[in-house]
Amino acid sequence: MPRTLGSRLAPWLAAIALIALFAYRFTPLLLDRSDHFVDFATLHGGQLVFELPDSRLNSWILAWVDHALWESPRDLYHPNIHHPEPNGLTGSEHLLGVAAQLLPLEPFLDGAIARHQVALVLSAALLAVTTFGAVHWACGSLWAASLAAAFSLGMPWRVTELGHLQLMSVQFFPLVWAGITRCLLGDRSRRTAILLGVAIGLTLLSSFYLAYFLTFSCAVLCLVVGGIARPHWSALGRVVLIAAPGGVLFLLSAIPYLARKAEEQLQAQYDPALSIPPSAVLATLAPYWPHGTDTALLNAPANYWTPWAVLVLAGLATAHALRPSPPSERLLPRRTFTLALAGIVGFALVMMLGGSVDMAGIAIPTPSRLFYEIVPGYSLLRGPTRWGILVGTALPLLAGLGVAAIDERSGHRTSARAAVAVLSAATFAWFPLPTRAAWDNPRILDLRYAAVRELPPGPLLELPWSLDAGDIEYGSRSALASTRHWRPILNGYTGHRPRSYRFLLRIVQRLPDPRAIRQLRRLAGLRYILLDLPRIRRGSLPQWNAAVDSGILRLVHASLHSRIYEIEPAPDTGELTPALLNPAPRRRTFSGLERRALDDPAGRLSLSTPRRHSRQHLNWVHLAIRNASQEVWPGFDIDGEGLVQVRYSYAPRGTDTHSAEDERPETRLVTLDRDIRPGHTANVRVQVQAPRRSGPYVLCVDLVQRFAGSLQPLRIPAVERNVIVPKTGAEHESGLIELIDRSLLRAEAPPPCGSGH
Q: How many CA atoms lie within 13 Å of 472's alpha carbon, on the beta-carbon side?
């Protein structure tokens, strides 16, 4: 039958439409690739804590991997951030597979931000291509494959997870799923084997999340295809051989992570028994009518809502594959691939439930609970709802196969195709991705880091750097900025912070106190301190001038926006670094004090603090601690054993503090980071974290010594102050977010202030 003009033009028109759709969504990212990030505040209706810092982190990772592989491959896992800790890259993903995909685009990658933005765009482009290829192989329809590719570009999860490049890089999943299905059905071509092997290797090396998602989804696919097509064992063996090189590379890349986990520096953060109600899972994936719906709701983080068209078409494809039909060699790939994809979606839905399912009051373990126990590294995954990404990747493929079924039933009529396209497009939220400037004043940064590059070698600390949410904001800024000089910095931001992180950060809060400067010099070999003048308290500048006058600091750079101080070198520079980094217990503290129970810890404690305590930021408490005993109270060490520490509790005022779970005092410990000599009164500032619920509280503070696994209160009366935690915006998050937050594994809370052991 001769081809009509319309049929000849159809592939070209489909390609032009896809390119136009792609350009509409991603042109802003490409035009501003070097100095702009996605504008999450516009997308989500407000600025979130982690979205932009995570984008900075992934930008830094890609830049560091490129820098290390070209300059010093042996230092790949020992980056410049979080000095002096080694293995800093193992605190987050290494993104090696993403970095490898960027190599052909090297001439267009002018800086760390450009790498990140181009990687985001490339992931979308390749996902559309592989989705097109997989659907076209399964059903032979260019029309259905084109619509499936368009669906993959518009899936909402691709917007809500834009801050997490490690989750976005699923571009080879369709190729792998289709390639394995082809191999199991008898395809022995070299081209298929090469493409499949490369795709598996790049995906496994892109993200540990994706490595687990791909591995388990392929296992489900093999089970479904095996049950339908009954392939010969040699076909399965061929798949294993094809995947083996990528698997070996993945295991080699994971060794430093597993070693750090064995040292208990990478720890699980979620309760493995967490049970998410099926209603919450379905709400995460439930479709919206996008027109007239609040933009912030549509683009909320981890909202994996499914457009109506994708849901209906995917269901239609599955039903079409399940209907009884005579065996057919021609239809076997399509039917097998459809049911395999449906199996992957079902498996991902079960994994989204967490570690168990509650039925009639009985907790039934899910496969996730088993994987938590037996699969190395699986316990480090955060948030079981992220398995919804697997659903969002597979559904466009199924929807494309549903389009093919409709197209065949309609006789490939142009009117039917137009109706499907228009109705489908109406169920998506189409818009160009907004961007925002990565830096407030790039010119200032150019001048600032040009001055840093001119300095002699030595570790750098950037201020401000705070203990609350500022450690995320400023730490990620400093990490990204360090790509301009690659000098070791104490700052940084990763998913799993090193052991010394909080300890050094607490000391930094006391700068420019001379004792803190000396401690940082001894612990980390710190040589330079950079002040971002617009972001620090102007009232602190006289104290920095006094430190210069005292001779402990030397001003080496000054401008309207920056100051850089050099710490005067001394014989004790870096002398405590080996002890800081050694996790093994030591008999003596950094100051040489023996770790033992104090004989007669008598003294006095007084407290002053503002009446209003914010639940969004840490709050300063000023303590005067009098040591009236005859021995030194140890406080300066990273290991809490034997140290005197501050214990504080927030007890709801006017209630029985032990009558209900949510009314019990919130109790925490704060380290002094200094020793207190006999007969001496130490004036100490500590930061405390207020409860999440607003209201009146009694803040109680006392001193305890941690020894032999217990807390021994010092023989000093506790002090109390009435405080108010005012309301600041919404008191409660969504039910799902609150549920996951409650599932976080936290250290056992100490006994409340004023209590005994």
A: 13
Average pLDDT, the chain: 90
User: 603-742 has which fold?
Assistant: Immunoglobulin-like (2.60.40)
Integer Cα distance of 584 and 578 in angstroms: 11
Structure tokens that stand for 494 in this block: 């990763």
| Closest C-alpha to 371, from 360, 361, 386, 356 | 356
Could you count the other beta carbons within 10 Å of the beta carbon of residue 206? 31
Mean pLDDT of 643-656: 85
Q: Three-class SS of residue 553?
A: strand
CA distance 469 to 511: 19
pLDDT of residue 361: 74
Report CA 512 to chain centroid distance, whole Å. 32
- Each residue's pLDDT tens digit, 580-613: 999 899 999 999 999 999 988 899 999 999 999 9
- Secondary structure string (H, E, C) spanning 172-191: CHHHHHHHHHHHHCCCCCHH
> Of the candidates 239, 217, 446, 452, which has an alpha carbon nearest to the alpha carbon of residue 351?
217
90 token code pair:
């193992």
**Which of 3-17, 473-487, 734-748 is least confident?**
734-748
Distance CA 207, CA 250 (A): 10
Strand partners, 448: none
Percentage of the chain exceeding pLDDT 70? 93
What ranges do the domains of the chain cover? Answer: 26-435, 442-581, 603-742
Confidence tier at 655 by pLDDT (50, 70, 90): low
Tell how strand 695-707 and strand 719-725 pair up: antiparallel
Sign, Cα dihedral of 123, 128, 132, 138: positive
The neighbouring-strand residues paired with 443 are none
462 forms beta bridges with 530
Strands in 460-463's sheet, in edge-to-edge order, are 460-463, 528-532, 562-567, 553-558
Q: CB–CB of 624/681 below 8 Å?
A: yes
Question: What pLDDT band is residue 328 in, cutting at 50, 70 and 90?
Answer: low
* Gyration radius (Cα) of the chain, Å: 29
Whether this prediction's pTM lies above 0.70 is answered by yes
Name the DSSP letter for residue 637. Answer: -
- Average pLDDT over every residue of 506-532: 95
Q: How far apart are CA 499 and CA 488, in angstroms?
A: 17
Give dist(CA 517, CA 533) in Å, integer: 19
Degrees to nearest 5, angle at CA 20 with 15 and 24:
150
Burial of 131 (0-12, 13-18, 19+ CB in 10 A): buried
